Amino acid sequence: MSVPDWVQDAIFYQIFPDRFANGDPANDPFNIQPWGTPPQLRGFQGGDLEGVIQKLDYLHDLGVNAIYFNPVFQAASNHRYDTYDYFKIDPKLGDLSTFKRLLKLAHGLGIRVILDGVFNHCGRGFFAFHDVLENEAASPYLKWFHIKGFPLNAFGDEPPPNYECWWQNKSLPKFNIGEPQVRKYLLDAARYWIEQGADGWRMDVPNEIDDDDFWAEFRSVVKSINPHAYTLGEIWDVNPRWVGERSFDGLMNYPFRTAAIDFFGRNSLSVSQFSNTVEHLLTVYPREHIYAQFNPLGSHDTERTLMMCGGDLARMKLALLFQLTYVGAPSIYYGDEIGLTGGKDPDCRRAFTWDEASWNADLHGFVKSLVAIRKAHPALRRGEHRPLYHHDRDGLYAFLRKHDQHERDALIVVFNNSDGTVIRNIPATHSGWPSGAWARDLLSGKKFVVENHFVTNLRLSPRTGMILSTQ
After folding, report:
1. Which of 143, 151, 90 is nearest to 118 (CA)?
2. Is 134 in a helix, a strand, or coil?
3. Which of 24, 308, 291, 53 is nearest to 15 (CA)?
4. What integer pLDDT is reported at residue 408 of this predicted model?
5. Which of 18, 82, 116, 204 is catalytic?
6. Is 404 considered catalytic here?
7. Which of 52, 187, 371, 454 is 20 to 30 A from 110 in CA distance terms?
8. Can you tell me the distance from the alpha carbon of 241 to that of 239, in angstroms, rounded to the nearest whole number?
9. Out of 234, 249, 303, 337, which one is annotated catalytic?
10. How far apart are CA 356 and CA 16, in angstroms?
11. For residue 182, with 0-12 CB atoms within 10 Å meaning exposed, 13-18 middle and 19 or more buried, which class applies?
12. Is residue 164 exposed (0-12), middle (13-18) or buried (19+ Cβ within 10 Å)?
């Protein structure tokens, strides 16, 4: 049950279903909010699976080859982390036939699909919790939850809940994973959606289910149906416990995001601090798990990338350049590629605008170019990573990506994260580039000569970068 090989080549696109595209107005609620309404905790704007189907060509043209969906199962909220029914697509999104059609069309374009599993807690409308609300101590589902007293104070802000729930949120009662019937229900759900054709699971707050046996069994169930399914854990820190044969293939690499945003977006790290951080991240997990890390710059839980970069497009481009050339699977949060903005959730969950006149065309084209470069070069997806140069004084950082099985596929990525133009010779150590070769920047087309293991006279304008290749 090794890590699926395809993840090294994956370029993910994360979709918050209610806000990406409305393809079937017939499933909209009667009180739907107008598309583009400022995000609120309550209310729906009509995004659905049919909308994703209709925009698959857009995703394929962008170059992404994997989709990560936030929850799509029946729930009360627009975020759907308060699941009612783990075996049913939310009717506001479509139905099982819609989901299967999406999978068939996506797979036909070479796009895989992973789903969001919320196994730590459910919604108040979940059948077993509803039964406890009605029957109290006489409920046959009493042991499914951590009940401390009756009657359940499941609504309102006061007093504190008398049952365990996620972060004291009464709408999210916590499962008792130690109860065999609960484990069976959840693992049956994990099995069911892989059987329907999903390509993997992203699991919400797995560290709050502090039970290695459960996650070992989860992995076994998923891999028994599809050995190539990807299992991804939402872990926010660096913790090797959460990868391996008893847990996950990869983790949501938020430490990667923090470093990239702090360095490129906020300029709050020195070059050496950034270099030490991102290079350390490549040492803390076994290689196969490092290359299966899920590397976001933004997500449904964070401020939008452009906002974190202070609205500075040059800073965001550097962060994207790093994301698309670093080790692990990059993830584009829907709308980041067109310059969508937003603060902390729910503001980061704004509706995608399909009026191309409102897009940041420069940013969209830049993302598309980076994706194409990554897909064209195995070294950027599967190659080794070697640091080459960093210096706090000039703001330069450079590293090599090289693939052993493609000897000519070596690339040097250089960043100028300073406010001044820098001219430098950059080491080409281990690249295999001979003296006299010309190294071309794949972004601008500019060429630089290689002499004595250095790329010479590189001129980088403020807040710019290069991807150098001799191919």
Report:
1. 90
2. helix
3. 53
4. 76
5. 204
6. no
7. 187
8. 5
9. 234
10. 20
11. buried
12. middle
DSSP 265: I
The residue length of the chain stands at 471
Catalytic: 204?
yes
State the Cα–Cα distance between residues 5 and 236, nearest whole angstrom: 24
Among 94, 113, 3, smallest CA distance to 50 is for 94
Rounded to an integer, the average pLDDT of 421-436 is 95
Residue 292 in contact with residue 269, Cβ under 8 Å?
no
Interval 278-285 mean pLDDT: 98
Q: What is the mean pLDDT of residues 215-236?
A: 98
What's the pTM value of the predicted model, to 2 decimals? 0.97
Q: What is the DSSP code string of 171-235?
A: TSBBB-TTSHHHHHHHHHHHHHHHHTT--EEEESSGGGS--HHHHHHHHHHHHHH-TT-EEEE--
- Is residue 311 scored above 70 in pLDDT? yes
Beta partners for residue 1, in sequence order: none
Distance separating alpha carbons of residues 427 and 397, to the nearest angstrom: 11
Percentage of the chain with pLDDT > 90?
96
Which residue shows structure tokens 């481009």?
Answer: 317
Work out the number of other CB atoms within 10 angstroms of the CB of residue 77. 18
